[in-house]
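Quick one, T. Sequence first:
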Amino acid sequence: MIFERFSQGTSLLHTTDTRIKLVSAMTVTLVIALCQNWRTALIGLVFSIITAHFARLNFRAVFMRLLVVNSFTLFLWLTLPLTYPGESLIALGPLTVSREGVDLATLITLKTNAIIIFCIALLATSTIADIGHGLGKLRFPTKLCLLLLFSYRYIFVIHQEFQRLTRAAQLRCFQPGTNMHTYRTYGYLFGMTLVKSYHRAERVNQAMMLRGFHGRFYSLNNTHISTTDLFFVTAMLITAAGLGILELFIF
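Structure tokens:
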């Protein structure tokens, strides 16, 4: 699957139990998300980069994903310094850049990149199936786990169906433009995609019921938490506690 590019490897993070990585990711990212000091966020970003290095990820591929994320933070840099009240840093005619706005944009940028890199290092090194089963073993709601697994399985099918409808429109000499015909055609395309997705879901449900499905998937990978996994989650919890102490008592 195209979304599992980082899941193949032999690094420590690839062999760590998925449940351990889920607990570690939730703990560390929660601390980073709640910090209010840019120094703590910067340390979290450095730690995330080090973790990604140990995962032996393709940094070019990681960087391309960060570009997508930072396209949203760029919008914050264009608006927050000009709209957030506070001490004037630079005056650009009628516009004023506030120091507090720049600090807030910096904090959001550091936290966003730290969390994304850390989640890629820990979660993207597992397959979606392993993550779904790991969430189930952590006693997350069964319906939520099934929704994750089914969504990942059939989002590609829905995409292929939309591409088939698009090719059919192009074969009929459809040329998109800024007119009502184009808007109406794309409305039909999205509508037919939803209808066909609904019918596909009905057929899949009937097929699974005929095969005795009763609301639970069984994994062929019966993993066990090893001593290395326990050391790993302990190190992650200590890191999260250290970031919290830095936030509360030092910075």
